[in-house]
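REQUEST ID: PR-0412
SUBMITTED BY: lab tech R.K.
PRIORITY: routine
TASK: structure prediction, single protein chain
INPUT:
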Amino acid sequence: MKSITIARNYAEALLLAAEAGSKGAVELYGRLMDAVAGAVQADERIAVALDSPRVAKATKAALLERALGDVTPPEFVRFLQAVVRRGRQGLLGEIAQEYQALVDAKLDRMHAGVVLVEEPDARLEKQIVERLSAALGKDVRAHFRADRGIIGGVVVRVGDRIYDGSLRRKLAVLRRKMLTGE
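STATUS: complete
OUTPUT:
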């Protein structure tokens, strides 16, 4: 719990820096945080170098500058250097998640998991996103997944709510009604 609070504080600081930056910096910083957190998770050498007490904090800061200085805004590099200087590099993944949650709230955006029998084409994806956005009154980012087990229909998860319009559920309800005589 404490690490989430710390990560959120860092994410809030990064969001403030992004808002003070150029137009589009809020989204850019989110992509950059995801990329940095992903790189640290994917490459053990990066994680070891950032976590090692044998590597001086100044050396870590110089490594970040050398690796990211030409491809990211200087404010973003300074933010990462501050995270490492304070020994919070182990929270980069959590900071990235918290940052994305803050951006979603700021941009009035929601994420929805959509399960269909098979992968949808672009037209169907667009229709589903438009209908979800209209129904929820927010910009919806849909994450599609195929599952033949639902037989047909669609299952949508938004936050902790599930809207199950699958044929599998409808058949289960019908079966229960037939067995209980309702």
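NOTES: The mean pLDDT is 90.
REVIEWED BY: pending
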